[in-house]
Amino acid sequence: MSVIIVRNPSIDDAEHNALRAAAWNRDCDRIWGPILARSLGWAGALDGDRLIGFVYVAWDGGPHAFLLDPTVHPDFQHQGIGQALVREATAIAQEGGCEWLHVDYDNELDAFYQSCGFRPTLAGLIKLAR
Ligand SMILES: CC(C)(COP(=O)(O)OP(=O)(O)OC[C@H]1O[C@@H](n2cnc3c(N)ncnc32)[C@H](O)[C@@H]1OP(=O)(O)O)[C@@H](O)C(=O)NCCC(=O)NCCS
How far is the CA of 115 from the centre of ligand 1 (A)? Predict the structure, then answer.
């Protein structure tokens, strides 16, 4: 496999949004610079110059880091790239001095997150928009 994981690569918004649209099956038109500037770090999966995977890590400024939006292009899924992105995100959180890495997800992704080393915990959620 020629795919490599790169920490904090510069990423073109149009390419990133197209990756998300393909993987999440919904349009995305985010401007990523300000989002990533507030994060602890991010990782891209690159097939040559092409962005085919992404994840980023939000932070509370203390011991808690939050894994957000692991994404792998459908053409590249089930090759271990999602796990590799989560490993890199975990290293970002560890090297940032965090004690805990949190994630939340829908039931169908339980096997993926367990395979990445997450264990279940209680969490809470409030729906703010209809
Ligand atoms: C979730 C996602 C990042 C996984 O990426 P991936 O590169 O395919 O994951 P891996 O190859 O590292 O998967 C490792 C194992 O996790 C499990 N797994 C992976 N994707 C899964 C899925 N969609 N549903 C259930 N289990 C899954 C499988 O056991 C898999 O092993 P296998 O391929 O031998 O069956 C990818 O499916 C994706 O981008 N989904 C759309 C975006 C999304 O929902 N992100 C998560 C938001 S919480």
Answer: 9
